[in-house]
Amino acid sequence: MKISSRNTKNIRNNVAAYLFLFPFLAVFFTFLAYPVIYSLILSLHKVSWSTNLYNVFSDMKFVGLDNYIALLQDSHFWWSLVVTAYYAILTIPFTIFLGLILAILLNNKLPGVSLFRSAYFLPSVLDMLVVGVIWTLLYSPHFGILPNILNSVGYSNFMDNGILASPRTALPGVALAMVLRGAGFGMILFLSAIQNIPVSVYEAADIDGANAWQKLIYITIPLVKPIILFLVIMGTIASLNAFTEIYAMTQGGPYVVEFMGKIQGATRLSGYYLFEKWEAMKFGYAAAVSYVLLLITLVISLINARLMGKRD
Amino acid sequence: MAEVILKDIAKIYKGGVIGCKDINLHIKDREFCVLVGPSGCGKSTTLRVIAGLEDITSGELRIGDRVVNDVRPKERDIAMVFQNYALYPHMKVWENLAFGLKLRKYPADEIKKRVKEAARVLEIEHLLDRRPKALSGGQRQRVALGRAIVRKPKVFLFDEPLSNLDAKLRVQMRVEIKKLHAKLQITSIYVTHDQVEAMTMGDRIVVMKDGYIQQVEDPIKLYEKPVSKFVAGFIGSPPINLFKVKIASDGKFFLISESGGGFKLSIGREGFGFLSSFEGKELIMGVRPEHVIDRIYGGIKEAENTVAAVVEAEEPMGSENYIHLKTQGSSELVMKTVGANRVKAGDRLELMFNADKLHFFHPDTDKRLNEN
Hints:
The structure holds two protein chains of two kinds.
Chain A: H1 2-43, E1 45-46, E2 61-62, H2 66-72, H3 75-106, H4 113-125, H5 128-139, H6 145-152, H7 158-161, H8 167-195, H9 199-208, H10 212-223, H11 225-241, H12 244-249, E3 255-259, E4 262-265, H13 270-279, H14 283-309
Antiparallel strand pairs in A: 1-2, 3-4
Chain B: E1 4-12, E2 18-27, E3 32-36, H1 43-51, E4 58-63, E5 66-67, E6 78-81, H2 93-103, H3 108-121, H4 137-149, E7 155-159, H5 167-184, E8 187-192, H6 195-201, E9 204-209, E10 212-217, H7 219-224, H8 229-234, E11 241-249, E12 253-258, E13 264-268, E14 282-287, E15 292-294, E16 307-316, E17 320-327, E18 332-338, E19 348-353, E20 359-361
Parallel strand pairs in B: 3-8, 3-9, 6-7, 7-8
Antiparallel strand pairs in B: 1-2, 1-4, 4-5, 9-10, 11-12, 11-14, 12-13, 14-20, 15-19, 16-17, 16-19, 17-18
């Protein structure tokens, strides 16, 4: 009697808990779990433009791992990975470095610090598309500010084509825009981490004989390492997913680079390539691309966490 | 080994806020000097000035034989122990100890030797591979001490190092720091707000208030002859009893009566001649709790000069008993008596004050007036 009454109470509690969870679970399963699983199924099928996507059992044709095998032989895909790696190398270290420098500068008690803090953070609130369009204007031939500045110091190469039309400068150009956009976010994280380090730790270091540089190397950086790890992982994911900035600034071009016997886009990152495949209605193939990217993200994140966490 | 000499040192912050001012101190070689006072009295500022963590606004600071006003902390040859330990959280204990030596480019053998030696002295050898997070408060404080002693500095600076420890550990570490000082014989300057720490540890005590030094004296003299009401009230636990009294004279004796109406005492002129210039005026009289005697418990049959008081509460400590009382003139006072002397709230006692140990303070300047 006693036990059963306790059981009913437990069940009632559980029901109440699930009722409270329901709104979240509904959204989660509809918009996250279902698409994730569905895209895995998609990646194992050949799906044509005429396929009814809402009917899994319609004319989708199961092809096993064919999409994945095709992917391994796709020079455009391999190239997109190469460009993505390059993009990651251009953006992640510089975003972190710049964020850290800004945080250290803003950690000083200087007049107007809060103004600068807001000013540096603001770009990361802006939509990437907006940032991309603004930088496209800054980089554009003839009237863009940057080509004009370079022209005034005697470097006229970008006046006719702009910065984004040259295969060597297109991706660094995108990366610069994104570094400046993203540094503010890292800055805020670094700033809060630095402000959590007790002042007395720095004073102890002063007395121990550390100069400003040694305090940075031996105290600040080790103590903000979790933030660095976080930013590396977030940066890796952002690079593998990078789409908006490419869509806004270069559409994957200029298409002038030769790789594995084919012409490639100098800024066709893997995220953008995925979009192109989807746009071309090769849904199964696009899903396979996204799964390979997911795998790469997981592996890189795990390696990062191992490397950074090893000493703790 | 070094003297520390502060000459007219002042630290004035922006907006004219006084950190400390007119600080004149001559801390002798190997001395253990304690700066004590309530929070905001300038004791930590003074210590930070000595450490070089704060700029000196004016005055001259000497450590050893050189003026160090503009010398950076690392070149002052000092070591400091902080209240929150300030250990490097990401470094293991031995890295914490070795950090200062490494930065000073000591050879690896020497670093190893010194770290081992410090760890042995402080009994933290088994903790060398741990990080500060994995240590208890007392262990962290030992590591902080270790970090100070490995460098063999000329001067140790302690900024309330025991405040974050629990009461029992604090007493234990107090003794250990004293032992360490006896062993190493390094000039030490110790800041605390705890007068018990000050009394038990200091060769000399510097009492500070509102940025100024009130008195510099060895603990016993400080206790027996405080220069002012503030010092008298700050040093001693439970604190000194203070009464507002009126002074009169019948030619042979001084008559001291509680201002609120209550006890009346008559004391002989010897040693209290200074009272004659205050006849008809009000003064502050101070009596330490141990100089208040319960007549009946003391076995004194008859006595003049008794003070009637009602028990309000008692704090039995075992070996002694603090009895809180109220006089007829509504002054509150504490009597310190032996632990066996127990009372109840509401009990009426006849108290006697040890006349030799009465202190008189000027009502306006708070200065002590006694001649000796």
